[in-house]
Amino acid sequence: MSSRSFAEYRAMFALGERDLDGVVLDCAGGASGFVAEAAAMGVRALAADPLYAHGAGVLADRLAADLEQGNAMISANAERFVWRWYGSPERRSELRLRARKAFVADLRRRPGSYVAASLPHLPLAGGSVDLVLCSHLLFTWADRLGREWHRAAITEMSRVCRGEVRIFPLVRMGDGEPVPFLGALLDELRGEGLACAVREVPYEFQRGARHMLTVTRHH
């Protein structure tokens, strides 16, 4: 579980002030501090992740080990990462620790904002949110989750969203390479009435991962 911060989300998804005017869904949210930090700013936000079924106590215990494991992976593969956005490993750790603390506190205080659910099935009504943000799930794990799963997941996020779905990044975790089936998948989605575009964002940590996919339904 990664505890990404609101600041990271703002950069990863090129979020402007007006993007947060409606209801925002973080899917899959993991231990992100996005919902907690957004709520403190008056933004209506919720998150979905199957891990929320375990409850705040179990997740809080697990998070310290997950942060250490993530840092060790980065150290062992230093050539795959760039530090321009963070500035230093210490700054990244500081953001993650603060986000983790905000997540656990918010999950305990407002559990209704955290929905235990996993793609490609979300227990939300059609068109019930204005913006869906999906970080480091689709494409990141393309070696385990195939093209059909991706099509179903994007279709489902588009079903619950009356605005735009934003997905970041578009490269695989293991080697940072582009996903081989991305082009064919986008053609298929466009054939189903979804408008798809690739946009560069003001964020890069995993080398080469600086683009997001936007998906909107033709009205």
UniProtKB/TrEMBL annotation:
Highest taxon, organism lineage: Bacteria
Gene3D superfamilies, per the entry: Vaccinia Virus protein VP39
Record InterPro entries: Methyltransf_11 (IPR013216), SAM-dependent_MTases_sf (IPR029063)
Transmembrane segments: none
Residue intervals of the Methyltransferase type domain: 108-162
GO terms of molecular function: S-adenosylmethionine-dependent methyltransferase activity
SUPFAM superfamilies xrefs: S-adenosyl-L-methionine-dependent methyltransferases (SSF53335)
Protein name per the record: Methyltransferase type 11 domain-containing protein
Organism whose genome encodes this protein: Nonomuraea rubra
Organism lineage: Bacteria, Bacillati, Actinomycetota, Actinomycetes, Streptosporangiales
